[in-house]
Write a structure and sequence with these properties.
The protein is an alpha+beta fold. Helices cover about 35% and strands about 20% of the residues.
């Protein structure tokens, strides 16, 4: 078969047109259950099972013909796919390689319309459009797809990493939530236990006061009852004494006189010795306010970002000496949060070599006011003076604003707003020097008359007065206390 004229040839016959048209994709797939056969073999009266398909010719073919299909020059760029590849990618079955308008192979690519076209399209429908060969367009598309694929793989990796980070954050959040919920329940149980114990103590105290008062009142009752009985008995005898002999009457009168005398001399208390009032004062408002202050929900990340740190220990630290600064722990609403000392952590490293520096005597203590913590530390005495540290300050494991801090290992020197130089023989240096925003070797610097003229700076315990930039280092020097 001539791939150009679609004629079949036999050695003993003249060229003749094919007696039957080649099966199309639709005719070859009329029955979904029928296995496709080689269309070229069918055309010459043979029946072989199809194993491949040419996307350009839109024909099924057997393995033998598929192996030689791309050998002729005109078919060299045809795409022959196995049926397994076609099944794996159903999109291939819908790829058209023939122009629907002119029934010609698609050989060109219209850059303006962004679609494959045939030769007739270039002179008719797509005339004057910028076009390129389909092979060149495919080559560029494959290069672009490869670049996009590489970019997609990178993006997918980044998304996977982001997914892992977000999932880890979610897992950590869940863990923190469960731990916080357990802590809340523990605190509630503790508060309930404390309240029950306090209730038991109050009841015990109430019981003791009641028993003490009740004992006094019972004793009083018994005393009054005894005296009343004696008086009643004496009165009854007096009534019976009027009816007896004279001697009996005299005896009864004597007994009555003695009883009444004893009553008068005893003078029993006629009012209760202790009051009957007994009550408990329970300050519910204070108890409620105290309980409400027990727990507070906060975001530790926001807490660190909202907290304020300040103090000389964030600027300089003399090796071997204690340095201090304050941490004001507050939430996003600038409400003070009374966290414990364990909520603040410090780390330090040298800027020169990024080596960790083991800070000594790190202490965090409450500073009276709620939410204010004083932090103190000491740089080891062996560290080089004049070097610099990166000081990391964390609250609840998160870096505070401004962390890490640039800390000079040594004294920063004075921060006077102005310095007056005067004296005999120093006329070229005499004048008023003003503190500048910029620094000289990370030290404060003052300019004469507020311009970049002669300058003064402080270094290592001495004042130095020097020429403007580019001059000698110094022409006057004096101690820092001068």
């Amino acid at each position: 078969r001539c791939v150009v004229t679609s004629y079949y040839y036999d050695k003993s016959l003249q060229p003749q047109a094919a007696t039957s048209p080649l099966p199309t994709m639709a005719s070859a797939a009329e029955s979904a259950d029928a296995a496709p056969v080689c269309e070229l073999c069918v055309a010459i009266g043979e029946q072989h099972e199809a194993t491949h398909r040419c996307l350009e010719c839109e024909e099924y073919m057997c393995a033998k013909l598929a192996a030689s299909h791309t050998l002729p020059r005109v078919c060299r760029n045809h795409q022959v796919k196995t049926l397994a590849e076609m099944a794996a990618d159903p999109h291939l079955a819908h790829v058209s390689v023939v122009c629907r308008d002119h029934d010609e192979l698609l050989k060109y690519f219209d850059k303006q319309c962004q679609r494959p076209i045939c030769h007739s399209c270039t002179v008719l429908n797509h005339r004057n459009h910028e076009c390129t060969t389909l092979d060149e367009a495919v080559h560029k598309a494959m290069a672009e797809m490869e670049a996009l694929r590489a970019s997609g793989l990178q993006d997918a990796a980044q998304l996977e990493q982001a997914h892992q980070r977000v999932k880890a954050a979610l897992d950590e959040l869940t863990t923190n939530y469960e731990a916080a919920a357990e802590q809340v329940q523990t605190i509630v149980d503790m508060v309930c236990t404390v309240m029950k114990q306090r209730g038991a103590d109050v009841l015990s105290e109430l019981d003791g006061k009641y028993k003490a008062k009740a004992f006094v009142l019972r004793e009083h009752c018994d005393q009054l009852n005894t005296l009343r009985g004696c008086v009643v008995s004496a009165v009854e005898r007096a009534e019976s004494g009027n009816k007896g002999p004279a001697a009996h009457t005299l005896q009864v009168c004597a007994d009555l006189r003695a009883t009444m005398g004893t009553l008068k001399s005893t003078q029993p208390a006629l009012q209760p010795q202790v009051g009957p009032k007994l009550s408990v004062h329970w300050d519910q408002a204070s108890a409620k306010a105290a309980i409400n202050k027990i727990g507070a929900v906060y975001d530790s990340g926001d807490l660190a970002a909202s907290s304020v740190v300040d103090g000389p220990g964030l600027q300089s630290a003399v090796p071997g000496q204690v340095s201090r600064f304050l941490v004001r722990v507050q939430d996003g609403r600038q409400q003070a949060m009374a966290l414990g000392p364990e909520s603040v952590a410090l780390e330090a490293e040298r800027q020169a070599d990024n080596e960790q520096v083991a800070l000594e005597d790190v202490q965090v203590a409450q500073q009276g006011e709620a939410g204010v913590l004083q932090v103190s530390y000491r740089v080891p005495a062996g560290e080089t003076a004049g070097g610099r540290l990166r000081l990391h300050v964390r609250v609840e494991g998160e870096a505070v604003g401004g962390s890490p801090f640039d800390v000079l290992m040594g004294a920063l020197g004075p921060k006077h707003q102005k310095i007056v130089v005067q004296g005999a023989g120093t006329a070229d240096a005499n004048g008023t020097y003003w503190l500048q925003q910029e620094q000289c070797n990370n030290k404060p610097v003052w300019f004469k008359d507020n311009v970049a003229n002669n300058r003064i700076y402080w270094d290592g315990g001495y004042w130095y007065c020097s020429r403007p930039y580019g001059g000698p280092r110094a022409f006057y020097k004096c101690k820092s206390d001068a």
